[in-house]
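ugh finaly. both done.
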Amino acid sequence: MSSEPSQVPPQAPDPSEIDDLPRTPVDPRAPSHVLLHMPQNVRSAALGVLMVLAVLAVLHLAQGFFIPLMLGLVFSYALSPVVDGLQRWRVPRALSAGVLILAILGGMGASVYSLSDDANDLIASLPDAARKLRDTVRKPKQQQSTLDTMQKAAAELEKAAQEAGGSAPAPARGVARVIVEKPKFDLREHLWTGTLGVASVIGQTVMVTFLTYFMLVSGTTFRRKLVKIAGPGLAEKKLTVQALDEINAQMQRYLLVQLLASLGVGIATGVCFAIVGLKHAAVWGVAAGILNLVPYVGSIVVTAGAALVAFLQFGALDMALIVGGSSLLINTIEGYLLVPWATSKASSMNPVAVFIGVLAWGWIWGVWGLLLGIPILMAVKAVCDRVDHLKPVGELLGT
């Protein structure tokens, strides 16, 4: 007969023994401890990070496809109110879209042709301005600057140290000196590269034009298709309609803000330069208005170029500083006060998140990323605000 081992229940510790144990003194001013638990599903987080990296790589490698697509979408959002208004007047969408696009292209071509002479003169004066600025900054050879004296003293000290340490090798006989010469300027190669660049720009322009036309002609076709494939339930379709409406409204308000801001910057720059007496003030106004669409980079280009040309025209650094300072003041008021306030009202987005997002898109797509970064972030926020798992992203982008 086998006897099972009896299990002895654990006994509670004696309170007297607990009181005898040494205790660590507790500082009443110390903050309370909070235990943070790591998320259990680490694999999902790792897969999410890998997916984000894969998407960024695809966007960078396939930018030749995505950039014209995004440009076509932005232009279709900008022109759709006009086409919709003409459609309400019983004008076919195909006809109104074609006439509108041709009118815009014709107006741009006429503006470029009317300002081409001034633009050519301005571009031709840039090398002379750079040469004159270099001659002014550089001191005459007869006057020895402090930096040259310090460089010669450092060279003499280095030579003395090498001779004292015996590290200076004696020149060997029969050893040929090798001189690496820079390749000469090849005009044909640069012309071929420039021709390919111009052909690429023309091809991209034609692609974006036709893409914008087809999107304007399609109207609400893709909208209805997205609502149809959103899900079988009424809630999914309703959220899709709300997201599309918000993207449409925010995109049109943002484009209107950018159009008014660029128009204001162009007019203010042209008038200010004309008052100062800078030549080709109208060309500078048009350039400032167009480059204002590129955040942060366009204003720097206009300010530096205008200051350089002003130095060539007036021959004085103070006039160059006045012209550059006025351009910088206009772009600062527009870029750091008016446009951020109007954009936050139009899109309800956090300026810090917008700045970081624009830098990220600029890193992926270059100048086009700087131009398209804010519209993409607006669309991302509109979608994230209505998806439960993506609401933290929308919260980060929001105000």
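ok and the 2nd:
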Amino acid sequence: MAAKSTQKSGGEGIKLAAQNRRASFDYFLDDRFEAGLVLQGTEVKTLRGGKGSLAEAWVKVDGSGEAWLMQAHIPEYEFGNRNNHDPVRPRKLLLHRTEIDKLRRQVGAQGVTLVPTRIYFKHGRAKLEFAVGRGKNVADKRQTAAKRDAKRDIERALKERGRR
């Protein structure tokens, strides 16, 4: 019997669990990184169910050379018992030493932060994609919204033209 494909969100063997949609609106996103996540069993079950939020999450690189996902909200597993996990506990990221050193150098710059963009399962393993982000000011956000609206208007006009 052939194995069932779990192709979602564009890649082979990738299933999206949580996404931070505001990240590209609030930050200029530069370099992107992929890291493994150290999770408890009930966290994995909750993420596989599509629950979880990266809205207030950020990535921290500490002095001991480890990277952590902070303030990510993964709700308690509804069928769990008293051994359920804490919903907003810090979660360790699995990165190579060279990647951590590169991140530490980049975060040292003024106004730069590490922004989680999505959590997904790749070949059965939980992964976090995060980017190096520089904060946008109000004028930049207005410009982003104007570009998005203009693109939407163009697509709408092309769609109308195609109908005629």
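summary for the 2nd one i guess: The longest strand covers residues 27-37.
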